[in-house]
Amino acid sequence: MTATSTGAASTGRTQPFAAPKGIPEYLPADGFVRVRDALVAAADRAGYGHIELPIFEDTGLYARGVGESTDVVSKEMYSFADRGDRSVTLRPEGTAGVVRAVIEHGLDRQGLPVKLRYAGPFFRYERPQAGRYRQLQQVGVEAIGVDDPALDAEVIAVADEGFRSLGLTGYRLELTSLGDAECRPAYRDRLQEFLAGLPLDDATRHRATINPLRVLDDKRPEVRALLADAPLLVDHLSDTSAAHHAAVKRHLDDLGVAYVENPRMVRGLDYYTKTTFEFVHDGLGAQSGIGGGGRYDGLMEILGGQALSGVGFGIGVDRTLLACRAEGIAIDDAPRVDVFCVPLGDEALDRLVVVAAALRRAGVRADVSYGGRGLKGAMKSADRSGARFALVLGERDLEAGTIGVKDLHSGDQESVALDTVVDAVTGRVRG
Ligand code: HAM
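^ thats the input. predicted complex w/ histidyl-adenosine monophosphate below
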């Protein structure tokens, strides 16, 4: 599309652009970074190393890794041909990319488990609504190469700790097991047989043949009523999966992480086996899932690696931020700087620009009032910046070789030698 087709040229005025539909953006006061970093910090404390993944990958990675029959792959991917005519896709999730990277770099040939964390944007062409975006932000972890229920519990506890560290309380952890290659096929047959005997509409009947487990998640009351007696996978687990599930629950009990069992949980991605979980917040309306994850025993092999299992989570940062707001948790009260410099005149500006740079070098956050503003306007900016101290430099100070240091909390003001102000203020900010 050319610029003229927007209609801007015909009015002779440039229309302001808007961010694309369904894509949220976060301003400094929104507290996005604090929420994201709190979630990341919980993963750091458990030894997960940062991996920076590509924003787009070969489309085949997601088709194979996430599953062709999922909504994510069949309807929601941002796929396009690049200039070399290769089909690439903006990453809809992180697990497939992490597993691809582990295989590509041979990380699984070193100590196991490989513990990685990631944070950033993901892309799904969904119908936008409150809490459901086309560019969503996740913090995720993956622990690959060790099939131990204690590791599943660790992953869950790390997510729980991330939420708790923000002060969130209004959420619950839902847990189930999706079994393994031994018990799933038999259960699938059993469920399909059950579904075949129900008066379902054509679309649902079709879904029952492709992915019968997903039918269990139908939200329509009339279908729910029909499904009341459906066989549940948790009642038909193999001995291995049942023991694994019991052990995960025992570890969660030991860790004091509360959960409720939801045997009808259906995740939107196909790779899950055994442990599967979701964190659900009650204050968010329809888009209540603030995080989810589970174990994926076959994914490494599907993507061409060794037969190693993995377990991980993805937390929605957008929704976690909404959950904080819903619970009235004030996220951004952090001041931007410690010191705000107020020059009165050109010569004062020259000096304060250097003072501010020296303060920053000393680790003190400092800002300057630019543009030759008067004392009143500059002091307003100082208040808005959240600074503890304002440094006020006028002509008379310059002559005397001094500078005014105002404590914006107490209102006290004193005069300090200009030559020593960096040390003096640094000491006060630290003290
Ligand atoms: P997921 O459940 O598809 O799992 O996404 C994880 C979280 O991302 C969701 O719980 C939700 O908070 C957030 N989210 C998903 N879609 C949207 C959206 N359209 N708008 C806003 N937030 C959204 C995964 O992506 C898996 N890779 C998680 C995982 C890691 N499993 C194992 N390891």
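The longest strand covers residues 114-123.
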